[in-house]
Amino acid sequence: MTLADVWRREAPHVRAALLRRYGHPDACEDALQDAAEAAAARWPLTGVPDEPRAWLIRVAAHRLIDRMRADTARTRRERLDAARQPDAGRVPALDETPVTGTDDTLRLLFLCCHPALSRPSQVALTLRAVAGLRVEQIAAAYLVP
């Protein structure tokens, strides 16, 4: 039995088990792919295990738990860092400049991406001002005349 055969048969069951246990479809899909990668690296050397579904679930669950722990630790570090810097969460006003040099391109990028602007406006302004695209090119990218 090849890895591809096992994968076709077992992937839906592994995905369902992960979703039932952990939720988070995106994270479960990433963990499932990590398990497939681990199987592709290990099984040619050791052979397909007797219970490939259980093996895949165990490896995917461990990868998912590791990723969740890392995300939790990163979030905790970011919150502690933000608490130490009192102005870290404040968004600068349009007339303020977060850059203290003469780099006008970076200053322009910050202005184009200001949170007061809508996302499409931010992208269009950035493409025009920083990337130098013409209005016709930006309109074509948005599929509008």
Describe this structure in words.
The protein has 145 residues and is an all-alpha fold. The mean pLDDT is 83. The relative contact order is 0.07. The protein is built from six helices and no strands. Helix 1 (3-22) packs antiparallel against helix 2 and helix 1 packs across helix 3 (52-84).
How would you describe this structure in keywords?
mainly alpha, 145 residues, 6 helices
Give the structure's gist in a few sentences.
This protein has helices at residues 3-22, 25-46, 52-84, 104-112, 119-129, 135-141. With 145 residues, it is mainly alpha-helical.
Straight-line distance between termini: 55 Å
The largest sheet, given as strand count, sense and whether it forms a barrel, is: none
Q: Write the element-wise H/E pattern from the N-terminal end onward.
A: HHHHHH
* Integer average pLDDT: 83
Tally of separate helices: 6
Low-confidence stretches: none
Task: Quickly give the structural class.
Answer: mainly alpha
Share of β-strand residues: under 5%
**Structural Rg:** 24 Å
User: What is the helix fraction of residues, given as a range?
Assistant: over 70%
Q: What coarse outline follows from CA principal-axis ratios? A: elongated
SSE inventory with pairings:
Elements: H1 3-22, H2 25-46, H3 52-84, H4 104-112, H5 119-129, H6 135-141
Helix pairs in contact: 1-2, 1-3, 2-3
